[in-house]
Amino acid sequence: SEQKNFWDRNAGRYDRFMRKDRAAYDEMYALIRPVVKAKAVLELATGTGLIAKHIVNAAAHIEATDASPEMITEAKRDNRSAKLHFSVQDMFRLPYANQSFNVVIVSNALHIVPQPEKALQEIKRVLKDDGTLIAPTFTHAGNSFSGKVKAFFMKLAGFPLHSRWTSEEYLRFLRQNGWTVRKSAVLKASFPLTYAECVKSEDKIQSSHTRDTREARNMYDICLTVSAWCIIGLLGVLFIRSLRFREFHQEKIIPWLVGIAMIFFLIALMLTELKAVEYGLKGRITKDQGQLRLII
């Protein structure tokens, strides 16, 4: 798949990319170690095994998995622990028996898969009833301006971002899919990193508007991306104009680019507004710190 190919292509660069968030990850390791102490642990979307390698001394055993063969190859290179085993697995179809693990870790993955609800269902199947889910996730809707710029260029490079939650929306998403959030914290990293520690809850709240929120935001992102490319094209035309290429008909192209950018921006706003209207009294669109958020 395209998503898997992205991670295969970037496996060799992944550790370098994550170095800038070392302080946040060190804080996260400290939160995780007491939870996994002497426990059987499954990690999904392990990548190059950063988390697994830093916590394996505390755990009884860790099965660390990823859908990308190249990521697993990188992870195996410097694995020095007999308690840590790496393998290529699909988080939606795990080969393990029901209630096999005391702890399941899925770090920075739920926001990049198309159907995170299904991943949570499979996690619930392999986790013991008294087990713990640890699910730290970058919550991109809370990005600073510089974070928004980074995320924009990451998306242009093919980064598969499917869900842009705020921290509050992400925790609510977990609760709506059958989890009780026992502990949470927002760690300071390149993007807000919401640490969530959960246990199974008996009541599952079926939430269609959680998916609708994500779909509305994705449509909004697509339209904003088209608008951004139109603006980039406009800047290119203005640059060409500054070089005084008289034969270039910039007088006709500039209004078209401005018009297309405005149309797609307005479509983005309209689509988001229409999704909010679907919720009736359950939702409304509001401005929060300069960004559109859906409040339910």
- Gross morphology: elongated
What is the chain-wise order of helices and strands?
HHHEHEHEEHEEHHEEHHEE
Number of beta-strand segments:
10
Helix and strand composition category: alpha/beta
Mean of residue pLDDT values? 75
Strand percent estimate: 15-25%
Name the poorly predicted regions: 204-210, 275-296
Secondary structure tally, helices: 10
What characterizes the major β-sheet? 8 strands, mixed
Helix content: 40-55%
Q: Measured on Cα atoms, how large is the radius of gyration?
A: 22 Å
**N/C terminus separation:** 33 Å
List its salient traits.
296 residues, alpha/beta, 8-stranded mixed β-sheet, two-stranded antiparallel ribbon, 10 helices, elongated, disordered C terminus
